[in-house]
Design a protein that fits this description.
Layout (H helix, E strand, L loop, with lengths): L3 E7 L3 H11 L6 E5 L6 H7 L3 E4 L5 H11 L4 E6 L2 E3 L1 H9 L7 E11 L2 E3 L8 E7 L4 E2 L8 E2 L5 E14 L2 H21 L6 H18 L6 H28 L10 H14 L1
Helix pairs in contact: 1-2, 5-7, 5-8, 6-7, 7-8
């Protein structure tokens, strides 16, 4: 493989970094950490391992990842979140990958955990993402939430062996907090895109997402955690359209431009506190 830079975004991920960085150093001598004001030992650990650490005000997942890409030494980028750990099989697969065309991207399978339990079914059980790419042709979009890669035409997608192990949430309380946060960001994204919170989306879509995750994708086979994940799929869908409806009403007859986002976010946070 051509030389690779690794870009990691972090927020209080000390426990994960001590496991991920030694593995990532097997494939890169250029590890960039974009840190969002961590209060644990994240920065200390990353610095001790020789990573280049940048304290960056949080401007969004995609924007912070793009900043890391800009600071990288090499054009080939492996993008890793702070709560993800590659396994040795993935590291070996990257090592063995022959240099590809610049428009080739590499898809990685995920193993996602609820606390210490591996989730095998539902959306979490089939998760995979493109995370290795050439920055000359690929970058992240900068939507408020659920950032995706902007891929060139005629892109070639190849799969890598191995997995990124994603330690998504420690417990139900953390999951509840994340669900509210992501639903707020989704509402802002939808508001800027001019989407509306109709009755079908607000009341039927949440039920569909629960049924899909719990029954069709066999989430019930993951036991209690499978039910919680499915319930949160319901809650996230309902909340994002609920917040969108509230924000639309509060900003009625006002154009939605970039400078409106702080106002919208404040209103959504206010609603979140009283839900």
């Amino acid at each position: 493989m051509n030389p690779i830079s690794v870009v990691i975004i972090t927020k209080n991920e000390a426990g994960t970094l001590v496991k991920s960085i030694p593995l990532l150093k097997q494939i890169s001598d250029d590890i960039i950490v974009i840190d969002n004001n961590s209060t644990d030992q994240t920065v200390t650990i990353a610095t001790a391992y020789g990573c280049k650490v940048y304290q960056k005000a949080w401007i969004g997942y995609g924007a912070n990842k793009n900043k890391g890409i800009q600071l990288a030494r090499y054009n080939w980028i492996l993008s890793v979140d702070g709560d993800e750990i590659p396994d040795q099989a993935l590291i070996n697969s990257i090592k063995a990958t022959a240099p590809g065309d610049d428009k080739t991207v590499y898809d990685i399978a995920f193993k996602t955990y609820f606390g210490k339990k591996l989730i095998r079914f539902g959306n979490w059980g089939r998760d995979h993402h493109i995370r290795l790419f050439n920055r000359q042709h690929v970058k992240w979009n900068e939507t408020p939430v659920h950032e995706t890669l902007q891929l060139p035409q005629n892109v070639v997608v190849k799969k890598l062996d191995g997995n990124l192990h994603h330690y998504s949430v420690e417990n139900q309380a953390e999951y509840e907090k994340k669900t509210i946060h992501y639903s707020q960001l989704s509402a802002i994204k939808y508001l800027k895109a001019g989407k509306k919170a109709g009755l079908v989306k607000q009341y039927l879509a949440p039920v569909f997402h629960f049924v899909k995750t719990y029954l069709f994708l066999l989430g019930f086979l993951d036991g209690r955690e499978g039910f919680i994940i499915s319930r949160m799929a319901f809650k996230n869908t309902w909340l994002k359209y609920h917040y969108l409806s509230k924000a639309t009403q509060s900003l009625k007859n006002k154009p939605i431009y970039q400078h409106d986002v702080p106002t919208v976010a404040y209103k959504l946070n206010t609603h979140a506190r009283v839900e």
